[in-house]
What does this fold into?
Amino acid sequence: MACFFRRKIAAELAKTLQQSEDALLPALTAVPVFKKQQSADFKLSLGALRINGILPSSGDIQLQTENLAAQLKPDSVVEDISVGPGLINFKVNRSLLAEKLLEPFGKGEGFSFGLNSELFDTTKRGTTLVEFSSPNIAKKFHAGHLRSTIIGNFIANLKQSLGNNVIRMNYLGDWGMQFGLLGAGFNSFGSMEKLKENPLQHLFEVYVQANKEAEHSEDMKHAAKEFFRQLEQHESQAMSLWQQFREITVKEYQHIYKRLGIHFDVYSGESFYQVQTQEVVRELQSQCLLKISPKGTGVVDLSPNEDMSNICTLLRSDGTTLYITRDIAAAISRKEKYCFDEMIYVCLAK
It folds into this structure.
């Protein structure tokens, strides 16, 4: 529909300037719609015409603009022509606009509305990986997750409609020190019976209680660190409990996604990249990029002057990894596995 008006305007310009329509189209663009003020629908850049050699590059550009505008007349397609700084603005006939807007629906093309536009002819198509939703396991689905889920699904649908091969990924927060705290808390306060009755509510209650306990108890802090160390070492008892937390959560989340009409091609998670994180660490060490801070943590110096004023921490002092370590490993792994042309992260609301 926009292309119809753009080409009609270009055709009139072509007669005036003795040029082809296609030569003028790059200089003729749609104007964004503003809620609080009326604006033109299309604008012609005289600067673009000068660069492309359609108009002389010397002389007063505003005078050129006004002279060209004076040669153009409103018609059945364009109802108003105005001049801006180096621009000619065109406002299209509103009755014709409504007619053209509804035309595809009368032809039964409603589901493909806007997708056959020539504006998409030059759009690059390929494989797009969209990571969205990405809640933490053992926690209830909240409004922040809903925002990421809806926006991410919209982006995935849009990319798919434009002809891209879309991979929809849910990258679960299923690793990290918080699961050390949850595991230690469950060993102290948890109940398998309550876990079966209302799993996410019980895990939430356990985590809150463990968090409060850790505020004043060194024993709980130590137990949390030890449980996470056991996870990183893949010790069977800790892994079994963690796996149960993960499976319960995914099952609960899938009910929500089904109600929202949303699906994922891949359920991934931080835990998938334990081996790869060590490869990332070794690669950084081999390039002498990983340094040990005074606190004993493994860091990469990002400061321009290499004075450690801006660092990224990749390892805790006990050698365990952080979210960013796993995220780097995940990005490398995805590129190798899916060979995507673009990867889009849809973050949670903060």
In short: The longest strand covers residues 165-172. DSSP finds 13 helices and eleven strands in the chain.
